[in-house]
Write the structure tokens for this entry.
Amino acid sequence: MSYMALYREFRPKSFEDIIGQDHIVTTLKNQINSDRIAHAYLFTGTRGTGKTSTAKIFSKAVNCLTPIDGSPCNECTACIEINKGTLLDVVEMDAASNRKLENALDIIETVKYPPQSARYKVYIIDEVHMLTTQAFNALLKTIEEPPSYVIFILATTDPQKVPATILSRCQRFDFKRIKGDDAFLRLRHIINMKGVFAEDEALKLIAKVSEGAMRDCLSILDQAISMGDGRVDRKLVSEMLGITGREAIYNLIDYMSDGNIDSALREIDSVMMSGKDIMQFIKDIIKHLRNLLVVRVSKNPEDTIDIGLDTVNDLLEQSRKLRYEDIVRAINIFIEAEQEIKLTSQWRIVLEMAIIRFSKREYDISTETLLKRISRLEDIIESGSIVRSTPQKEKEVPQRRSELAASEAVKDIEVTSPNLDDSNSTPSVIEEEEDTASQGVGSMSEQQAKGALVEVLNILRANKKMTVYAHLVNGKVQKVEGNTIYISFRDEFSFSKTILEKPDYTKGLQKYFEKYISSPVRLKFIIEKGEDDSFNESINRAKSLLGEEFVEVIE
């Protein structure tokens, strides 16, 4: 006999074999025992929760010659033929491949004829939401008032696509996702039946990864048994599914919370070199962060997280290194990364940008983070670290780095205003504008270039092109020569310059600039020169934001 997949070999044969759906099983058995069987049912729920299996068991139960407390005996002629799929009175139809009006008309035609050997003629229509509107309309009258010997069982994973006129004619049963404990017990039972060795931790991992779908559990177990040659352990399942080990995720969270970007990026490189799936890795990070959040806010986290006490203690220890708002921010960052990865082939860059955003708050340009920076700046002003003073000439500002309150406050918000002028030689706003106008060469002025940069950043953000936006926002217009715009980056943003210099990125950005300026544009990306540029920039921006009369440099 040819090999049969586990999910087919161990398909439930009676209501007692259905797990996690007690509310449905009890109702159906009571209807059979009291002979109050409806003419149409709608079974809804995610994949692998037992919709089709329950429909087949129900079709056996209503036609069983010797039912046992509402369940089929699986020994009479009707039960045996239904199990084999040879009973003509039980019709199973896949609506995904039989969705046209002609298929609906075939059902309407055959409904007229009574069952040949069974008590009821049962139509099981799987994935019913795939039927066309015309097919649904044709079936309306038949489903509403079928012959007394006909039962319709409609199954779907997407009930929102089923017309309300159909829904109102059916008894609806919602199938729940199967709990991890129930799935584990079922897997253990099957392993014992097959005589295969499997660690409990491996089976629990399979149940967890399957997310409540029993068929997925059995498919993964089937593959693991083949891969392990009859021996299934947690390491084997992790390698097969591309799941990253706990240690790598714990280390990565520690590195990010400490702001250690170098170590975090090396950890990512190690994960990728081991052949792990990046998408699965991000999902594992999000789940880990969710667990950190739960242990941080819950008094009994073991009731919510399906893990051992030792793991809860490890999570609790790591959660103490992070504030509540930091964990929430991290979850949002990695959820955004998960969505963005689906739209690009540059998976690694997206993941690394997410890590950098979380590790270094000054690189995070989200609205929430910017508001917090502004709030901190206001606190600094109110505390008196930045005091009112008589306006001073720029040449009197000491040209050395020191721990200045004004400088530190501005560092927190410098990424938010890429269109601010950063000239080091301009003593006032008026002189700065005159100098800028005089530097424009050809048909394009420096002011036009800066306006174009702001507009391009807005377009990138509106179009959800966050990877390019996150790099370009680190730059500023340094100068304009003819039709060439020079965009400069500080040394710490050299990686952004490297990324944007790739031909695809450069050509795409040039097109955006040309649309705004209405003339050909060339982009050049350069690194800023001079040690004191950053210090002077901070002072200038503080004066621009707060007013010169409110800024005093404290030595």
